[in-house]
Amino acid sequence: MIARNKRTKALKNMPNSMPAYVSSGAGPDAVICLHGIGGRRDVWQPQMQTIVRCGFRAVAWDAPGYGDTPQIEAPGWDGFSAALLRLLDGLELERCVLLGHSFGGMMAQHFASKHGPRVKALVLSATSPAFGKRGGDWQRDFITQRVGPLDEGRTMEDLSETIVAGLVGDNPDPAGVTRAKKAMAACPDATYRRSIEVLVTFDMREHLSRISVPTLVIAGENDTNAPSPMMERMAARIPGARFVLVPGAGHLANLEQPLAFNAALSEFLQSIRATGRE
Q: Which helix (H) or strand (E) segment is 110 a member of?
């Protein structure tokens, strides 16, 4: 049974409070699931029971500005890490496994660089160590392209079907696609804008070689947002990291191909427990 955070209504006007989350399982060992731009906590539903079966508590949050978590006063990588730290403290978790997808994978990398002792392992899905090209022109063009439709008066609900269609690969699970579209449609326009603006500032390339915890890097074969060759190079720069390619998947592998994604995740989590590094 999944336990829901009961405090979400009270948190609506408390931007520096503990984020909203769902949780399944119990115990001191937890996997914290961090969604990407346009996601929310329920996009991890296909992974929750797999995590529990591996002996971990499964926790999926609403990032600041998403779902039932209010926007923080100064959204940015430090602000996201501070919110995640409040979640761990509120759940009384000394250490955790961070499972991050795309934007959430960037949050996981940043948090690990700031609060390394709180992280026991990383799972980085469809993400990268930096965004865009050096110089800034590419980033400005990207922002204009992504938020342009909102400037023209369209909403995230209007755009959700087109956005998700451009993210998925071959033969995605229909239930997963539906879940992704609903999450994208529910994303507040202002949150999407802010997330895009933060996204283009990300650069943790110099940190990769300093990651010292077990790390799994999962790429979708047909992902054009976080291409698999780039992710394989990323994994090669992280000491001891494992790289897994999900055949046919695009950018939303955990929703598109949940069986293959869960198999890779399960093998990794079980290996952590088997080696006593949990």
A: helix 103-114
2-274: CATH, from 3.40.640.10, 2.60.40.10, 3.40.50.1820, 3.40.50.300: 3.40.50.1820
Q: How far is CA 133 from the centre of its chain?
A: 22
Q: What are φ and ψ of residue 175, in 5° steps? A: -65, -40
Mode of pairing for the β-strands spanning 21-24 and 57-61: antiparallel
pTM for the complete prediction? 0.92
> What's the pLDDT at 79?
95
Token duo for residue 221: 């074969």
Alpha carbon distance 127, 118 (integer Å): 21
Convert the pLDDT of each residue in 104-137 to its tens digit: 999 999 999 999 999 999 999 999 999 866 556 7
The DSSP H or E segment spanning 156 is helix 156-165
* Those residues with Cβ within 8 angstroms of residue 96's Cβ, 6 or more apart along the chain or in another chain: 29, 30, 31, 32, 59, 88, 118, 119, 120
- For the chain, the residue count is 278
d(CA 151, CA 206): 35
Sheet-wide strand order for 119-125: 2-4, 21-24, 57-61, 30-34, 96-101, 119-125, 215-220, 242-246
Domain boundaries, the chain: 2-274
CA 150/CA 196 separation, integer angstroms: 12
